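Hey, can you fold this one?
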Amino acid sequence: MSFPPRHLTRRRFLTWMGGAALLPLQPARSARSVQGDMLARAVPSSGEAIPVIGMGTWLTFDVGDNTARRDDRTEVLRTFFELGGRLVDSSSMYGSAEAVLGYALRRLDAPPLFSATKVWTWGQRAGESEMERSRQLWGVERFDLMQVHNLLDWENHLPTLLDYKAEGRIRYVGVTTSHGRRHDALEAIMGEQPLDFVQFTYNMMDREAEQRLLPLARERGIAVIINRPFQRGGLFRRVQGQPLPGWAAEIGCEHWAQVFLKFIVSHPAVTCAIPATRQIEHMQQNMAAGRGELPDEALRRRMVADFEAL
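Sure. Predicted structure:
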């Protein structure tokens, strides 16, 4: 049993109580100094702690064979790990992203990777071939998490993934959707299948998941990865030219990206958000959202009201 640390502020205490799986992680070992601990949440099926800020690779790592761009992405990934990140999410659907990830990982010194990718094809045999190709592209011995991408042919792929997990070929099993689509189908799968993870869209503009998916994940003990946390830039366009509200400083936010991410990961059912970026500066801003204060429920409501008023 864990107990709250001493000298808590009221908001930190409420955060601890509202998300009892929220844990401090020591930052990854690196040459750079890292101030503060990265917050983490436990995967319900295992208790393993995952940093609340992960990294997506859709579009950003799809740079083909361009060596200069591959080297740039290697430095983005290096920064992610140095600032306490672990979970990197990709897919066979993301063009060259998996190959670029493999290129970058080979150039980093024992990164603390939690590897998550997806199968995106029709048929069991095609799925098995695709997952093996992904493993070779990443250069990993096995994936930590394999997900069925956008529920495509999940009836064929999910039994295979469960067999792989039982055989030790992957560690966790999940399914995904995005763009706020197919919530009814995802809800049914979550209620019936032995999933470790689900992944779907949730942000300050897309909050439908609060109604059914997030409560169900908490009830069923399923870890939640949040994609499209910035609504493909839509949230930034909404606040363009607007100063940060006064309450942003209360939770340690210096940039809008941190506001958006802290809103997401402060929900007690959320395990990890996976923003994607091409720029080291933006990666630094994203990772800062995983440290310090998180908003309590009252502040979350105010954040939504202020955002909608813009």
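The two ends are 43 Å apart (CA to CA). Let me know if you want another pass with a different chain boundary.
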